[in-house]
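Hello forum,

I keep getting stuck at the same step: I have a sequence, I want structure tokens, and every attempt I make locally crashes halfway through. Rather than fight my setup again tonight, could one of you with a working pipeline run this one for me? It's a single chain of 506 residues.
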Amino acid sequence: MSAERALPHNREAVAAPVERALPHNLEAERSVLGAVLIHNEAFRCAVEIVASGDFFRDAHRRIFEKIIVLGERNEAIDLVTLKEVLAQAGELDQVGGPAYIASLVDGVPRSTNVEYYARIVKEKSTLRALIHASTHIAQRAWEAEDDPNVILEDAERTIFSIAEDRARADTSTDSRFTTAAESCRDHPATLMVLPPLIFEGAIGSAIGKIKDGKTSLLLAAARCMRRCEGFCGFPAPTRPRRVLYLTEQPQASFTKQLEDAGLQDDDGMLVSYLASWHGVPWSRIAPAAIDYAFRQAAEVMIIDTDARCLVSATPYTAKGGAVILARHGRKSGGSASDAGRGSSAIDGAVDYILHLTKPAGQPSDVRQIECVGRFEMPDRLLIRRRVNFSTSPTIDIGGGEVVFPRYVFEPVTSQTPSIRSQIRSVLSKGAQTVKQISDAIKVSPNTVTRTLQEMAGEVIKVGKAGPKNNAALYGLNSKREGTSPSQIHRDGDVQSFDRDPLGEAA
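Reply #2:
Ran it on my machine without issues. Output:
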């Protein structure tokens, strides 16, 4: 074969790699074997990190295989037992004979350093595996006999397998066990990233029926975390958090919701559209998202609405990341613990559930959040999304500007007057147009119009503030309030309107 081959796509030729010895460290391999022979306790540590196939020298591979056999039998591992098991297998001479076995214990720096020696052996093994894999991938690419997508998928699978094998070695078995005291000392308490909705190192499930307001709620929560604002009267975060939001929504509609939440100019609000990952399995999306979140220092990940992320999100929460998984609710509804579509195992695996519903007997802009989980949370929250009637779209914050959101959430308590009672209060002072009522109670005109329709019989039209159809004046029904429509009309001071409610000439 020629030393040079033309690359595909008519690129310039490149020289073939010069033959080199594969990465290895025979001294580290001998030290691992010798440390185990000196102190059998070292065997458990070594076997958690390396396998027999990780040794470069064939004799060392065979010796470690027999050491594993002795360890599995719970027999002593020393020069005598090792020679015996090698002799029974007919391999004693192949590994160098009794003299070489005896030499393994000579010159071992410290048997207690076996973990360090084993990690060196594992590192060299990983490098060799990468070299073999890349050579195989390159050979298939040169031959070009398979579909490029097949070659790429096989390459990804091979590299991922090497990475998984290395990851297992990086965490010894003992480190996966702990005492209660150590666990509580390392993690004294679960911190609330945003009270009472988001918890550090935990996975939450936000369930709601389609178009009931899950995304608006989660974006409002993201704004609170970005700006250190308290959600619905709860304590504000102590510092801003970067947020990564993965959404199934099209970019056009989600951009509108970002603007409604006042996040359109926020560089700390990171977004990935799942449509851009079309055809990519979640097994690749999740690691890429987690890696990006770590690199961007994003401490919160919101996934809307793909339940496949549940298992994949665990490495993120293990390092303190907070995850909220938005899910569609069942059409039939149900309690918080079984309201989500699909398998109930999903909600059994999360740490807490936020069940968003439209409560009966409340205005259409009110939502109830039922909270169920492993943390101290309010049993139920009543919240209301209202239009933000700020006079300025932005505010100066010392060299920068913050965009006011179009919609904000506020708590609904027993002291919070309903929209109907607020409309009654405004109309009791005289006839008003929809726009005047909207401005007075800080509720959108559409909500006012809908509520007035629901109050049919209690509220009636008593006149017009101008020639336009939408300039109707509303007042309280005299049969219910003891006041005549003419009196309401007169008290409303219709003559004071020289323009219609929309600002056009009457």
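Confidence is low (pLDDT under 50) at residues 9-16, 481-506. If your local run keeps crashing, start a new thread with the error log.
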